[in-house]
Each structure stands twice: as C-alpha cells, then as structure tokens.
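name: query_chain
kind: protein
chains: 1
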Amino acid sequence: MKNKLLKLRNEILKSQKVENNNIQSVLKWLKKRNKVNKMKVSKISVNKLKDWYLKKNGNLFHKSGQFFSVEGVNIQNAVERETSSWSQPILNQKHGGILAILARTNKGIVEFLLFARKEPGDNSIKLCPSFSATQSNINRAHGGKKTPLSEFVLKNKKNIIGETTHYEEGARFWKKPNKNVIIHVDYKKSLKIKNPDFIWLNFSQIKKLNFKKGILNPFVKTILFMI
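structure:
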C-alpha cells in the first residue's frame, strides 16, 4: 500500500504541472446543486423525535440499537484543562465509519470524486468524500437506501491506494473511529457514475477550494492528507 501511495504522489506532481486550477465552474455547479436541493431542517423537541427514545437512565438511543446514543460522562483530574473536573453529554457510537474518496486518471490528470451533500447542521451543501457511512448506514438500520457507491468501496480491497484510521473529536464523540480510504477506480468504470451530485476535481482545484468559506467538508482534507 505504501508503494501505491508513493505512485499516486508522483502522479499528482506530474498532474499539477498541467492541471486547470480554475474553480469558477465548480462554484457555479455548487450553487446549482444548492438550488435543486430540497432538504429542509427545523429544530424540534427531543421528545418529538421519531424512532428515538429515552432509557430509564436518561440516555437517548435509536430503536434499532444502532447509530449513536447520547450518554453522560464525568471527568476528574484533568489538571491540564481549563477546569479540572466537569460532566457533559457525549455521543457514543459502537460502530465506526468508512470515509472514502475515489481517484482516477483522466488523460494524465489525477482526479478525485467529491459528493455535494448536506447534513442537518449545515447552512448549505458541502463537498464531501465520495463515500461516507457508518456501519449502521451500511446495515441500512434507517430502513432506507444503501449509500451511493457502495459497490466501489465495500469489498474492494485490491484497489485501495491508502488507508488509515482517525478518531472523531473526543470532546463530542466517545472513542469513535473512522476508516479513511483512497480507492483507485478505472476511468471506464468511473463513467458509470451518473449521479449529478458527484463531481471529479483535480488536486489543484481542491486545494484552492479549501480557501473558500464553508465549501469543503473537513473529512476531505483528513483523507487527502495521506497523500
């Protein structure tokens, strides 16, 4: 796997010499995706949440027993912190997640597939990894559709370029791991991806987009940092 990463780095160095780093068309595309996105979010009381319940001990959990639960932690002797003791709620998810970005080579240019996606707490759509799913999503504990690109990411170890594990922010999550993966996809196979919410971008464009407010999902940077 180390050799695959080194190869990708060398390919990107060559690619960057001829890449088009213009992002105006990307920003216009994002603006259009925001207009067609119909997702609406409003705050409601916790006791009005569908399929979420409070246990006798006060912990909040999903009826499936999957996804995350909201529990409490008590902290003592944190002498290096602003205050040495406190208690707080924390998100506990027994299953970690998989975050993957697909990569291809198009006429000598290395490109990465990003997903225009909006989460409930977002102001607008962000460019996210190609694939983002917890094990609960993969199990379809929500009763809905499977995560897009599952066929490219799951059970596809031979095409993995790089892989590492990072943990979510410990101030809000209880020991939740995410597997970060970069996966090579053959150019011809990549043409089968027709979803209009996906876009192929080169490394120079992604770096430039990083300086635009609220465009890149943080996990994109975490994954590509392997390079």
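note: Residues 11 and 17 are 10 Å apart (CA to CA).
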